[in-house]
Write a structure and sequence with these properties.
single chain; mainly alpha; Four Helix Bundle (Hemerythrin (Met), subunit A); 63% helix
């Protein structure tokens, strides 16, 4: 089984931490344009199911906020997997995710074969 180089992990971790900071800043900016802030950006993302919070935002702004929150959750998951030693292993088959795939998409949780199989499975069939 291919091991991921520790230098690559460190480099990807730095990139993920930078991305987390940027996403958290974007979420806070969208929600708290008046300068107030919530204690936890992820908690704020989870609270978006609250209709009152959602109503305060326009439809486009809410869609962008949801996208940022999904990306933030993926970054947090990748960082967590780095911490527990499971980063770089496909969550479906357990095989290593290719280095090039991780470099291109550091939040990838599936190897290319499993990702393609997943996309084929969930593809909407024409009527």
């Amino acid at each position: 089984m291919q091991q991921i180089d520790s230098n690559l992990i460190a480099s990807l971790q730095r990139a993920l931490l930078e991305r987390r900071g940027a996403l958290a800043g974007a979420v806070r900016a969208r929600l708290y344009s008046d300068g107030s802030e919530d204690a936890s950006t992820l908690a704020t993302c989870n609270a978006l199911a609250d209709p009152a919070q959602a109503d305060a935002l326009g439809e486009d702004e809410l869609a962008l906020l949801h996208q940022d929150c999904r990306q933030l959750e993926a970054v947090e998951l990748a960082l967590s997997r780095m911490a527990d030693g499971s980063y770089g292993l496909c969550q479906q088959c357990g095989q290593p995710v290719a280095k090039a795939r991780l470099e291109a998409q550091p939040t990838a949780v599936l190897c290319l074969d499993c990702q393609q199989a997943s996309e084929r499975h969930y593809r909407v069939q024409p009527v």
